[in-house]
Amino acid sequence: MDIRRKPVLSKWLIHLWFIVFSLFCIIPFLYVISISFSKESDIAIYGYQLIPRTITTFAYEYLLESPKALINSYLVSITVTVLGTALSLIITAKLAYVLSRKDFHGSKPMSFFVFFTLLFSGGLVPSYILIKNYMHIDDTMLSLIFPYVIMPWHVLLMKGFLSDIPLALIESAKIDGAGEWKIFYRIVLPISKPAIATLTLFIAFIYWNDWYMALLYIDNQNLVPLQFMLYRIMNNIQFLSTSLQTGNISIDLSQMPNETARMAIAILAAGPILFVFPFFQKYFVKGLTVGAVKG
Fold first, then answer.
1. Is this prediction's pTM over 0.70?
2. Which residue ranges run through the membrane (predicted)?
């Protein structure tokens, strides 16, 4: 009986541990939601609370004062994320496939070159000069897409997965008359779904959360992505709060959405990603061990 009880007890302890760990992960997000629907005066008096004393949508109303601009920023971010992720996946997968081929003699020097760029980047000034003066794509959507098309870490991650594909499988496909393109699209890509799903999320997160490229290259207000728009709103709120504290302007501080607006910004920014993640969850969990197990 003791021998049987030990596995059951350890199983329950593991489940309990993961439940507690999940709560620690979920509670901060619940706090963010709660604060975004709270009154600024309640936060100033009572601090952060999991259940708001007074439920209000004032922070969201403040952020949605210009709904057209917000919707346009959402569309820009979605377009950049979809196009950038698709283009990055295509180039990354093809480059990683070439580097993973054991019968390609240039694999090692090219892999070292990719790894070297992971350690040393070109720098901000050369990148700015390249995009603005040579490529002439500043103040266009391409300036938001191109900087993240090739990421060395993503190439090496994909290469680690593709290296586990048996060379015999590729050689047998060649014997059956398949060319390189057919092998890549009909054999390699279907096998690589977990890695592709993982990279899709990684790349999409980078594009969706980026505001810095818009700060550098975008002047057209119709091309402002969501994150940069929310960044400017947050800076405006911070400026008004600082001015209130120094007495430069006179506004009721309790009516100024400072903390509540910050949390509402986090919800607006994270919402689409939270909606997309469940569709990739199955492959993402498998892809977490990409290249980690050698068969």
1. yes
2. 12-33, 74-99, 111-131, 143-162, 183-208, 261-280
